[in-house]
UniProtKB/TrEMBL annotation:
Pathway: Amino-acid biosynthesis; L-histidine biosynthesis; L-histidine from 5-phospho-alpha-D-ribose 1-diphosphate: step 2/9. Its EC number is 3.6.1.31. This is Phosphoribosyl-ATP pyrophosphatase. Keywords: Amino-acid biosynthesis, ATP-binding, Cytoplasm, Histidine biosynthesis, Hydrolase, Nucleotide-binding. Signal peptide: none annotated. The gene is hisE.
Amino acid sequence: MSPPINADILEQLYNTILSRKNADPSTSYSAQLLAKGPHKTAQKFGEEAIECLIECATGNQAELIKESADVLYHLLVMWVSTDVSPQDVWAELHRREGTSGIIEKASRSIPS
């Protein structure tokens, strides 16, 4: 029987990626990505996000699921590369909870 699926998997994956931060890049894909720095991890996240968008637009649900998993993985790699923790993001989501998306967006400063 497989374990229940919930948001804890994201923290587990984050911790696994974090443990690879100083690993040998020849033995870990996460270490390879992290060794390239935040610019490359952001670029890879963007590539995966585009692939996810394409699968959504074409209606390919099976591939959308796979690409969504890739997006989440690469998002977590990007967080590790920039020292952002899941708790930082969860705190921001909690801060926004109960606020209209329209009001929250309007409260952000827009550069002129």
